[in-house]
Specification:
5 helices; mainly alpha; about 120 residues
Amino acid sequence: MNTPEDQPHPDEALARARAAREQMAAALDEGQEPGVDEPVGWQRVWKRPRKPEAGSRKSKAAKKVGLRKQRKRLQEAAKRRLAARNSHRSRVRQRRIGIAAARRDVRALSRMRHSGAWL
């Protein structure tokens, strides 16, 4: 256990922390800004560089090709969603279908039982 003599005075510790504040801030800021040729990783939206103006000056044909691809992608996604929605049956409907199938099986078995057919 520490004795009171071993522990530094709170005012001294505060003064040392204030003196080291600039060093700690410099160490934290170091390496934050990437170099010019260095690839940029994830950044917050407001820190990301804006898209270059040259990219927005596409030819009409290039814009149409991009829009066509986008439309096709969206249509395929809609087809997938429709297929997924139709493939799922509600519980009530599943139960009703299952009960009807069981009823048919029972009827067929009872007909077999009451007929004179040999298996």
